[in-house]
Specification:
The protein is α/β, with parallel strands linked by helices and about 450 residues long. About 30% of the residues lie in helices and about 25% in strands. The chain folds into 2 domains: about 10-25 and about 240-445, Enolpyruvate transferase domain (UDP-n-acetylglucosamine1-carboxyvinyl-transferase, Chain); about 30-230 and about 235-240, Alpha-beta prism (UDP-n-acetylglucosamine1-carboxyvinyl-transferase, Chain). It binds shikimate-3-phosphate.
Length: about 450
């Protein structure tokens, strides 16, 4: 929600070995899509394992505002009764997507080809993020967008009355842009085509197919060409949301940071468009085994067993960036405690996340005594084995920056503080109790 309330600073101190099982929450990307596609379907969608973080709850609220029924059952299953493609009603209130870039961008796509008007806003972080990357392609369908400078929120979209299908090459590797165009294409007649030069997470394509859309992906010299046939009848589905690899990265990192740790992290999504962090960690020498590999709800899943062991610095191939774009903050923490230098290039997109994540990590790591180099699209971390710590880091309303520095404190020589732990609610509401159960030591500032 936009009203964030007073900040809650906490700090993290040297941790006992982490041990036990980490049941991380459902995948955030898949959760948003399940609610949105459920709302665009006919009949009932039943979702198990939905992430009940603020970002996703805000998307659920938005789907209600567009006319869908969204409810949580006593057993924790989420039920959506959709309105069908083109069936969105005009919301009577401003749609507040809180901190959620994925939420607002996908919802804008989903309503852009319906003859209704909606106004979107968010918190200070979301209202600072670029939306032109979404509104520009939506205009090609005939949608009218009126926002602040740079197309920023608050922003009003007038959906296209007679949408035309679109052929669009995404100018940056972004699953949100790709998905917004595909969702808009649902209510345009004919074929909407999205071309992406680098493969980004493909949950939208997988789930659209699962709901009954005609969608195909072809790999060509120009990149991935995704073709969607417009105006399908989507039918409500049963969806099992796998546990989020981006959230799993934190207990996995904890186990790799704290000597003597062994942590079991079951049911983690291993979609190849998302699992770059695990490939990188294995290259750094991490002891991770991938057990019981299987497919659940159309997504590959594995149980991870992680044991502490020394890590070495690596050069991450830039072409891997889209498959681990949200994991560079925690990778930077692990790189600081590794031996040798870790080079992360091709990560310009990090600058337009919930905050400028290259800057946030560079400043926080420096404050903790780590040598870093940064440029527009790179971050280089000089590993030092033992990190001095002893600083308070700014999180800029960014959940992943908050969790990353709390993990650093688990291994640093001196406690590491963060100025606000509340943003963690957006993606991993159980992070603090879960990590504490494993052995981490967090305390509110002012306590001892
Ligand atoms: C997401 C795509 C990524 C990612 C975000 C979730 C999605 O953003 O950073 O956390 O669910 O589509 P971009 O599409 O801007 O790269």
């Amino acid at each position: 929600m936009s009203s964030h309330g007073p900040a809650e600073p906490i700090f993290s101190s040297k941790s006992a070995p982490l041990r036990g099982e980490a049941l991380v929450p459902g995948d955030k990307s898949i959760s948003h899509r399940a609610l949105i596609l459920g709302a665009l379907s006919v009949g009932e969608t039943r979702i198990t394992g939905l992430l009940e973080g603020q970002d996703v709850l805000d998307t659920g609220k938005a789907m209600r505002a567009f006319g869908a029924e969204v409810a949580r059952s006593d057993t924790g299953e989420w039920l959506v009764h959709g309105v069908g493609v083109g069936g969105f009603a005009e919301p009577s209130q401003v749609i507040d997507c809180g901190n959620a870039g994925t939420g607002v961008r996908l919802i804008m796509g989903a309503m852009a080809t319906s003859p209704i008007t909606a106004t979107f806003t968010g918190d200070a972080s979301l209202n600072a993020r670029p939306m032109g990357r979404i509104t520009e392609p939506l205009k090609l369908f005939g949608t009218i967008a009126t926002g602040r400078s740079g197309g920023r929120l608050p922003l009003t979209l007038q959906g296209a009355k007679n949408p035309t299908p679109v052929r669009y090459t995404t100018p940056m590797p972004s699953a949100q842009v790709k998905s917004a165009v595909l969702l808009a294409g649902l209510n345009a007649p004919g074929e909407t085509v999205v071309i992406e030069q680098e493969a980004t997470r493909d949950h939208t394509e997988r789930m659209l197919a699962g709901f009954g859309a005609e969608i195909s992906t072809e790999t060509t010299d120009a990149g991935r060409v995704i073709t969607l046939k417009g105006q399908p009848e989507l039918l409500g589905q049963r969806i099992t949301v796998p546990r989020d690899p981006s959230s799993a990265a934190f207990p996995v990192a904890g186990a790799l940071l704290v000597e003597g740790s062994e942590v079991f992290v079951p049911g983690i999504g291993q979609n190849p468009t998302r699992n770059g962090i695990f490939t990188t960690l294995v290259e750094m020498g991490a002891d991770i085994s991938f057990e019981n590999e299987r497919v659940e709800g159309g997504e590959p899943v594995a149980d991870l067993r992680v044991r502490f062991g020394p890590l070495k610095g690596v050069e991450v191939p830039p072409e891997r960036a889209p498959s681990m774009i949200d994991e560079y903050p925690i990778l930077a923490v692990l790189a600081a405690t590794a031996q040798g230098v870790t080079v992360m290039r091709g990560i310009k997109e990090m600058r337009v996340k919930e905050c400028d994540r290259i800057d946030a990590m560079a400043r926080g790591l420096e404050a903790c005594g780590v040598q870093v180099e940064e440029g527009e699209d790179y971050l280089i971390v000089h590993g030092m084995g033992r990190v001095p710590g002893g600083a308070s880091c700014k999180t800029h309303l960014d959940h992943r920056i908050a969790m990353s520095f709390l993990c650093l404190g688990m291994a640093a020589e001196n406690p590491v503080g963060i100025d606000d732990c509340k943003p963690i609610e957006t993606s991993f509401p159980d992070f603090i109790p879960l990590m504490t159960r494993l052995g981490a030591s967090f305390a509110a500032e002012g306590s001892s």
